Amino acid sequence: MRKTVVGVFAHPDDEAFGPGGTLAKLAKENNVYLLCATKGEAGKQYKISNIKNQKLQKIRSRELLESAKILGVKKVYFLGFKDGTLSNNLYHELSAKIKRHLMKLKPQTLITFEPRGVSGHIDHITVSFVTSFVFWKLPFIKNLWQFCRLYSKERFEKQDYFIYFPKGYNRNEIDKIVKTDDVWETKLKAMMCHKSQLHDIKRILKFQEKLPKEEYFLVTRKN
Fold this sequence. Notes:
Elements: E1 4-9, H1 14-17, H2 20-27, E2 31-38, H3 45-49, H4 53-71, E3 75-81, H5 91-105, E4 109-113, H6 122-137, E5 143-148, H7 153-158, E6 176-179, H8 184-192, H9 198-208, E7 214-221
Parallel strand pairs: 1-2, 1-4, 2-3, 4-5
Antiparallel strand pairs: 5-7, 6-7
Helix pairs in contact: 4-8, 5-6
């Protein structure tokens, strides 16, 4: 019997640049859906190419739909928040929208960011906190997988994009490791759908080529 898995993320590209391999593997035997809080209109490409943010959000939302199709996701739901604005004052509104979708989809498993947002991005951290809150409110959801990075000294020391960039986790702190060798080409194709974020694709692949084809999660299970 196919189960339902829902990924909850902040921006278009979070699904592919993050646990894209895991989503692709899960989609082979489960019904996988995505909730995306924003349409990514504050993406870096907006500043680089002078694309108006209204046009960029259309581009990035279309890129997400293309990526999701490649990963095998059944449907994407956009929650309608503005990129870069997720914070305490939106906690309740964001949690209500996430909860409303989850009540309809009835997933057994949620996938989101680890508590530090993987990269330290405030939007990521907010989505992680709120998704974790909703997880404990809905008894039919049994598992929470929080995508995280393996600690890499090189990755940690070279980051200057955010004021705070978390160092990642050691292997003994990680609860679940998903081997993604067999779906790496699928993940790569999904990443390449996000052409407006080519700068990030190049940066991620530069590090990724030195690392094992694995994705890492902190896991919480209900009894």
